[in-house]
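Sample entry follows:

_____
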Amino acid sequence: MSEYLKNFIAAEGAKLKGMTLKEKAVYIWEYYKIPIIAAVVILFIAGSIINSVWINPPKKLYLQIAFYGGYVDDSSLSALCGNIEEAVMTPEERETLQVTGTYFMLDSGDPQMDMASSQKFMAMIAVQELDLLVASQEELGFLAYQNMLLPLRDILPDSQMSQYSDKLVSAPDESGAELEYAIKLDGNRLFIDNGIMDEGQCLAVVINNMRQDNARRAIEHIFNS
């Protein structure tokens, strides 16, 4: 310890020695409140980091389903995601992974809000956070033409494709080739039971999703529950 620091501590100790407990508290707060506040903030930040990284880390993504072009009630969306989790994930997977959902309003009447939703949608595709997409047949046709959807035959086995044959939706890609991109949700029991609109809606797979096995399991559950 340096001589200056020793002298400083001795001087401060001498000042405090003759004070009452209340006077000590007032003196310390008056002269050292900034270092005290800084130390509390640093400890809080450090504790938060330790908690989020080692003690209670956030769950990672197992699958994300997005509703494109309309509003979905949060409680209904949570119930749908919870149902999929229970059906397709093991208890061990549910400890560290989760199914999440989101929606993108594209006709809210507020041009700025619609633009923000469109930008968010494109950003989430770019960072590969979206897996399954629910939208109208018209909207999905547009997205297929923009090469933003994965042809179903690239992810589903022939047995599943045959099972959904009467529900498959085709659309031309940017080269003009007709490919099956989506499955109609009309009358889907899982959506109806969770209070989510099914009529006129279709389910598709985002072109660059990184969780194809998870998406395949979720599709099988959605159409067989």
Observations:
- The domain at 60-222 is CATH 3.40.190 (D-Maltodextrin-Binding Protein; domain 2).
- The chain has a mean pLDDT of 85.
